[in-house]
Design a protein that fits this description.
The protein is an alpha/beta fold. It contains 9 helices and 9 strands. Helix 1 crosses helix 9, helix 3 runs parallel beside helix 5 and helix 5 packs parallel to helix 6. The structure holds nicotinamide-adenine-dinucleotide.
């Protein structure tokens, strides 16, 4: 449908044709990584993709997550879904998952990388006490995993595929208690930009969503989480916390051709909290 938008400037009045574009994710094939339960940010995205009639290919680490996903999918039995095991700490597991996905689906239109982990003891101590192992583990799981996954999926990407990863403000500001995960998110955002450059020649886009604080399993590991939620409620421009659905909606836009000119970007879905001094 073609809409006419009337734009009035100081001296000029002109008409501009604007296509009423839909999300255009229907019948496309997206890999969603990181659903642990119904609160997971990744589940919010998967639900929206399924509502839009996209095919959703889930990856999970633990059998417990697989069982949770299968249960959640009971309400979506008429949709196209599939599940594959993928532990992002293992190159073999990543290779196996994406080879199987490639063989079964032929191509991938996008990936939602919604995976992170750090040892609890590294979040309960001052950052200065972070162990060498804990630092490496948080980086490996939460940042390098994006690189490894992009590489494994590369042979199967369609022309305009889009990768979206989940980051947090702790990547660029000191949020006491976020510690080693903040440093991992900084690496994740830098990796996202370098991947955007590498894959851009192929037309593939890579972006990050910097989500506001949302009560999930991963968030339980951050000791200062309740304080963060209250601070955002008090100080953010929207004076409220964001939620799973808002992050999911923006992720769909970033997967969709609606954002076709955007790559290498960190998009904030955080009630505007990041602009505050
Ligand atoms: P979540 O616990 O529901 O999701 C984290 C997922 O990471 C889980 O499904 C877990 O199984 C997976 N994972 C961990 N290690 C893995 C491995 N080795 N292999 C495969 N999967 C592994 O929590 P969430 O809050 O939905 O987190 C999703 C993403 O969003 C994370 O990157 C997190 O840092 C980010 N994020 C969360 C918030 C928040 O407040 N909840 C805010 C900003 C960004």
């Amino acid at each position: 449908m073609l809409h006419l938008l009337l734009v009035t400037g100081t001296n000029t009045t002109y008409y501009k044709g604007v296509m009423n574009m839909s999300l255009q994710v229907a019948q496309k094939q997206y890999v969603v990584m990181g659903v642990a339960n119904e609160r997971s940010i990744a589940w919010g995205v998967a639900k929206r993709l399924l509502e839009e009639d996209a095919t959703v290919i889930f990856t999970y680490r633990k059998d417990r997550s697989k069982a949770k996903i299968e249960k959640l999918l009971a309400d979506y039995s008429d949709k196209h879904t599939a599940l594959f095991a993928c532990d992002v700490n293992s190159d073999d597991s990543i290779a196996e998952a994406f080879t199987q996905i490639g063989e079964q689906f032929g191509h991938i239109d996008g990936i939602v990388h919604s995976v992170a982990f750090a040892h609890a003891e590294d979040l309960r101590t001052d950052f200065i006490n972070t162990s060498r192992d804990g630092y490496a583990f948080a980086q490996d799981t939460s940042a390098y995993s994006l690189v490894a996954v992009a590489k494994a999926a590369k042979p199967y990407f369609s022309d305009s595929a889009s990768i979206v990863t989940m980051s947090y403000l702790g990547a660029e500001r000191v949020l006491p208690g976020y510690n080693v995960m903040g440093v991992a998110k900084a690496a994740l955002e830098a990796a996202m930009r370098y991947l955007a450059y590498d894959l851009g020649a192929q037309g593939i886009r890579v972006n990050a969503i910097s989500a506001g604080a949302i009560r999930t399993l991963a968030a339980k590991g951050v000791p200062s989480f309740n304080d963060i939620l209250h601070k955002i409620e008090d100080e953010s421009p929207l004076r409220r916390n964001t939620n799973q659905a808002e992050v999911a909606d923006m992720t769909l836009v970033m997967l969709s051709p609606l954002s076709r000119g955007v790559t290498g970007e960190t998009i904030y879905v955080d009630s505007g909290y990041h602009i505050m001094g």
